[in-house]
Structure formats: C-alpha cells, structure tokens
C-alpha cells in the first residue's frame, strides 16, 4: 500500500469514474464526460497538498483506493485544533474485492490522520462499506443538527453550456482546417 503520485492521475481518474458509475448507477453521460475532463486538473492542483490518495497496486495497476481531503476550519469542541479530514471514493475494483485491500488502505489512512493530528475524520458509508469502517473505529454520528445542502442549479446548466460551446468550437475549427 502506498500513496498515489502525479504519474498516477490517469488511473485515479478512471477509478473515480468507475466509482461514480457504480455508486450513481443512473447518470447523465454529458455530466460524466465533464467530470472526466475536469478531474485531471483537480488531481494536479490538490494531490499531495490537501488531498491524499491511498492505493493498493497489482503490478502497474491501481486496484483499490481511498481519498482523504484535509481541511483546516475555525476550531470548535468537535474539532479542537480545526484540522479535519473527509474520506471519499473508497473503491476496489470488483475482481479484487474481499481480499483486504480497502481495510489495509483505510488503516494506513487512519495512521496518517493521527500523524497529521486531524481532530476528526468523517465519511459517508454505503451499506457494503459500513462493516469495514465500523471495524476500524468509525462510529455513527448522532447529532442535533440536520444534514442539509444547497445545490447551485445554475452550475449544471452553465457547465453543460460550456461543454456544448467547446464542442461547437472544435467542430468549427476542424471545418476551418479542412
């Protein structure tokens, strides 16, 4: 087990897409194409800085991964030093599941979280992942807060317009070069 490096970005993009397709099952193909287009830049800007990707390899291939996003917030009693982590995209390729990869990756991630002095690490679990996370110390959160989110409805439309404009410009450029 080790951490991904910049040379792994193409593999990380593919694992992220595989995870999203499996998790969402029904998805918009154009949205997925836009995610695929933007992910390499995201990984270039964040990997090894505030995003750490724990991986298991078989030969040259990454077969399992987990992402840890580290954020510093104003302190409060729930995160006394303000440093927190969020785990996401814990994914193992189907043919490599039930072989201990995710447990080893998550154990390494937790060790690093302790060394980074993160106050808390949170995650959202699927039913399939729940026993694994519970076995390494994650607990259900009981809160008097309601989990809520706001979604920018214009972003999806604006992103789609940008994709369509780029596609149209590519077609125009190709016609000009003929």
Alpha carbon gap, first and last residue: 50 Å
Give the DSSP E fraction (strand runs of 2 or more residues).
Answer: 15-25%
What would the principal axes of the Cα set say about the shape? globular
Poorly predicted sequence stretches spanning 5 or more consecutive residues:
none
Strand-and-helix sequence, N→C?
EHHEEEHEHH
Mean pLDDT figure = 90
Q: Report strand order across the widest sheet.
A: 1-2-3-4-5
Our Rg estimate from Cα atoms comes to 19 Å
Question: How would you characterize this protein structure?
Answer:
By secondary structure, the chain is α+β, with helices and mostly antiparallel strands. It has one domain: Aminopeptidase. It is built from 5 helices and 5 strands; from the N terminus they run βααβββαβαα. Strands 1-2-3-4-5 form a 5-stranded mixed β-sheet. α3 links the parallel β4 and β5. α1 packs across α2. The mean pLDDT is 90.
List keywords for this structure.
178 residues; alpha+beta; Aminopeptidase; five-stranded mixed β-sheet; 5 helices; 5 strands; 20% strand
Short structural description:
By secondary structure, this protein is of the alpha+beta class. It contains 5 helices and 5 strands, in the order E-H-H-E-E-E-H-E-H-H. 44% of the residues lie in helices and 20% in strands.
Q: How does the SSE layout of this entry go?
A:
Layout: E1 2-3, H1 9-24, H2 29-46, E2 51-58, E3 61-72, E4 83-92, H3 101-115, E5 120-123, H4 130-135, H5 153-176
Parallel strand pairs: 4-5
Antiparallel strand pairs: 1-2, 2-3, 3-4
């Amino acid at each position: 087990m080790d951490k991904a490096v910049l040379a792994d970005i193409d593999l990380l993009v593919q694992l992220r897409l595989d995870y999203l397709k499996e998790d969402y099952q029904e998805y918009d193909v154009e949205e997925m194409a836009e995610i695929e287009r933007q992910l390499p830049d995201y990984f270039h800007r964040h990997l090894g800085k505030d995003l750490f990707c724990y991986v298991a390899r078989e030969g040259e291939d990454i077969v399992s991964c987990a992402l840890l996003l580290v954020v510093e917030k104003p302190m409060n009693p729930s995160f006394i030093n303000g440093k927190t982590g969020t785990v996401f995209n814990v994914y193992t390729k189907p043919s490599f599941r039930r072989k201990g990869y995710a447990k080893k990756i998550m154990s390494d991630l937790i060790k690093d979280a302790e060394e980074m002095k993160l106050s808390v690490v949170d995650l959202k679990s699927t039913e399939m992942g729940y026993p694994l996370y519970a076995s390494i110390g994650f607990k259900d959160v009981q809160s008097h807060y309601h989990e809520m989110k706001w979604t920018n409805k214009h972003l999806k439309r604006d992103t789609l317009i940008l994709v369509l404009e780029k596609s149209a410009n590519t077609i125009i450029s190709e016609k000009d070069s003929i």
